[in-house]
Amino acid sequence: MNHLRTVWRRLPCVRSFCTEAAEPQAKKRYRRKNLVEVANFLPERGLGAKFTRLMWIRNGYKYSYWTISKVLEKSKGRLRYYGRLTWKGEEDPRERPVRTWQKRGWRFILEKDMESTWDLNKAVKPKSESATTEASQT
Fold it and tell me: Which of 35, 51, 72, 121 maximizes the CB count within 10 A of its CB?
């Protein structure tokens, strides 16, 4: 009888009904967004908008961003983004495809917040640090 009990508990369909085998669900990790996921929230799929990567901000590449100038739809609904790269304040005059659009960690830049975007403390601040800073200020 003991043998049958262990066999039944190993089956996935029966295991879900057992109270002993219930495992706590792990928290879902926040997944950063790629360029398409960020641009889909903007009108005209981000045409004319400026985007940067969090890795560029963390590594200190100030004023490095893509300005999207053209969005083409390829087969099966896939998009291709073209734009001008501004790297460390110098804009490339050529329009070329954004090669790293599928990588994660893209961020939209507002014109009015251009200066504060490059401040590393504001851009990538863990939640625990912000809570301790607020507590120390009061």
Answer: 35
- Which stretches of the chain are DSSP H helices? 2-10, 12-15, 35-39, 54-58, 114-117, 120-123, 127-137
Inside any domain, residue 12: no
DSSP 80: E
* Structural domain harbouring 39: 35-120
Q: Indicate the residue type of 112.
A: K
Contacts of 134 (CB under 8 A, 6+ apart): none
pLDDT tens digits for range 33-84: 888 888 888 888 889 999 999 999 888 888 899 999 998 888 777 888 999 9
Q: CA 38 to CA 117: how far, in whole Å?
A: 16
